[in-house]
Amino acid sequence: MRKFLVFVKDKKLEPNGVRADYLFGDINDAFVIYREKRLKTYLRFIYHLIKFDHTVYLMGFDTIVVLILFFLNYKDFFYDTGDFEYALSRSFRNRFFSYIVFILERWVLKNARKVIVRTDSLKEFFQKSYRKDNIYVLRDGVDIDIFSRFKGIPEKFTIGIIGNLNVLKEGYVNGSDVIKCIEILKDKGIDVKGIIVGKGKAIKFLKDMIKNKDIDVEIIEGWFSFEELGKILERITIGVNIQTNDDVGNMRLGGKIPVYLASSRFVISTNVGDCKRLLPEEFLIDYEGSFDKKFPERLADRIMDIINDKKRIEKRFSCANIAKKYFDYRLLKADFKKILYEET
Question: Which residues cross the membrane (predicted)?
Answer without folding.
Answer: 45-72
